[in-house]
Amino acid sequence: MICRILHLQSEQEWVKASQWLDGRFNPGDSVEGSVREILADVREKGDEALIDYTRRFDCPEFAAPLRVSEQDIAWAAASISPEHREQISEAAHNIRTFHKEQLEKSWFQTRPDGSILGQRVLPVDRVGLYVPGGQGGNTPLLSSMLMNAIPALVAGVPRVAVCTPPRKDGTINPHILAAAHLLDIDEIYRVGGAWSIGALAYGTQSIDPVDVIAGPGNIYVATAKRLVQGTVGIDMVAGPSEVLVVADSSARPHWLAADMLSQAEHDMLASAILLTDDITLAEQVQQELEKQCSQLPKAQIAGKSLMDWGAIVVVPSIMTAVAIANRVAPEHLELCVRDPWALLPYIRHAGAVFMGQHSPEPVGDYFAGPNHVLPTLRTARFSSALSVQNFCKKTSIVATSPAFLLENAPAIASLARLEGLEAHARSVEIRGKR
C-alpha cells in the first residue's frame, strides 16, 4: 500500500514507532563544503562569481546587469491576466491585514524619582528576500514573495531587495515581477541559489548587503542561510514540508486524503501523517490515497513521500492523538473533528493550526492571511511563524535620574565587585563624589 497503517495504544508507543522519521532530520552536512566554497567565491569575487554560477546552473548565456529594470517590472505587471492580478491583490490584502495586528509599539515608563525607562521598536534598515523560481521559472512561488515581503513592509523596512533565479532565457517569471510591482518593490535581482544568499549577506558590486534574509529554498539555499546567520539575521532554516491531521469519525476520507497529498506533492522528503481513533476511517483514507495519488501530475513524488515518511495511525482516543501531535510539533496541524475549538487548548506545539473540516492547509498557504513560513522538524516546540517581529529590533532606553543613582549606587557597586569588576563599581560611585 502507498501509506502504512500503524496501531498504537499510547503516546509513549509513538516514540519507538516514529523512529523511521529520523531520516528527515538532515541538517545539510552533505552539501556544507560546497556551500562554503560558493560563499567564499561570492565574498571574494562579487558579481563575477554570481554571473559564473548563474551561467552554470540557470542561464548559460547570462550576462549583466543583475538587476531587473523598473520598465521590465511594470511590463510584467501589465502582461499577466486581470484575473491573476486580482487574485494576487486580494491575497496580499488578506496577508497585510493579518500582519498589521502584529505591530508592536515603543513604550516608556516613568518612576517617582524621575527616571525614564523604555523600549524602542524599529524596523531593520534593509531586508533581502529569496524567492524560488520553481521548475525553471514555470511554477513561480509568488506566494513566497507575498508571505515574506508583506511582514517586512508592514514592519516599516525602508529597503527590500529580492533575489530570484532567472529562467534559461535570462528572464524572470512575470507573475513574480507582478507581485513585486503590486507591493511597490522595485529592487529585484536575477540571481538565485546559495550564491544569492552570499550576495545578500556580504554584498557585491551590484547588491548591497542586508540586515535580514528571509525566504525558502533548496538544501543549498537553506545551508547557505544557516552559514551566514550571525553576519545577518535569518527567518529560519526550514526543513521539508509536513502536515499532521487529527480526525474523528465525522471527517470525510476523501477530504483527508486530499489534504495529506497536498503536502506529499511538495517533495519526496515531505511528511503527511493522519491520527484517528476510527479504524474504518483509516482504511478508507488509505484507499483514497491510492486512488487520488495516481491522478496527480506529481504522483511519483507524492507516492514516494507517503511511502517513506507518511503514516495513518490508529489510536484509542482523540486525546491520545493530541498528545502524539504535541510530540511531533508539526509545521501544519489540521483538527478535522466535530469540535476543534474544544481541542485547541490542549495543542501545545504546532506552526499553524487549521480548525475544522473547511480549513484545509492550502487555504493558509495562499489566501487566509497568517504566514505560511512555519517551523518544521519539531522546531515548533520553540519557534514561531514568520512575522513582523522578524524584521524589527528592540532597543532598551535607560534614563535614570540623579536621585535613582544616588540611592542605588552602593548596591550597584557591591554587585559589580562581587563579579570582580572594580571599574564598573567606580563608574557609579564617582558620580556621588564632588
UniProtKB/TrEMBL annotation:
How many cofactor units bind, and how? Binds 1 zinc ion per subunit.
Residues forming the catalytic site: 331-332
Q: Which reactions appear under catalytic activity for this entry? A: L-histidinol + 2 NAD(+) + H2O = L-histidine + 2 NADH + 3 H(+)
Coiled-coil regions listed in the entry: none
For this protein, the record's Gene3D superfamilies field holds: 1.20.5.1300, Nitrogenase molybdenum iron protein domain
**Keyword Amino-acid biosynthesis included in the entry's annotation:** yes
GO molecular function, a single term: NAD binding
Copy the pathway line from the protein's UniProt record. Amino-acid biosynthesis; L-histidine biosynthesis; L-histidine from 5-phospho-alpha-D-ribose 1-diphosphate: step 9/9
Which Pfam families does the UniProt entry name for this protein?
A: Histidinol_dh
The record's keywords, sorted A to Z, are: Amino-acid biosynthesis, Histidine biosynthesis, Metal-binding, NAD, Oxidoreductase, Zinc
Q: Name one GO cellular component term.
A: cytosol
Sites where the protein binds Zn(2+): 263, 266, 365, 424
Cofactor(s) in the UniProt record? Zn(2+)
Q: Which residues bind substrate?
A: 241, 263, 266, 332, 365, 419, 424
UniProt EC number: 1.1.1.23
The processes (GO biological process) annotated in the record are: L-histidine biosynthetic process
Functional description taken from the UniProt entry: Catalyzes the sequential NAD-dependent oxidations of L-histidinol to L-histidinaldehyde and then to L-histidine.
| Family (UniProt) | Belongs to the histidinol dehydrogenase family.
Question: What's the protein here called?
Answer: Histidinol dehydrogenase
Q: Which organism is it from?
A: Desulfovibrio piger
At the highest ranks, the source species' classification is:
Bacteria, Pseudomonadati, Thermodesulfobacteriota, Desulfovibrionia, Desulfovibrionales
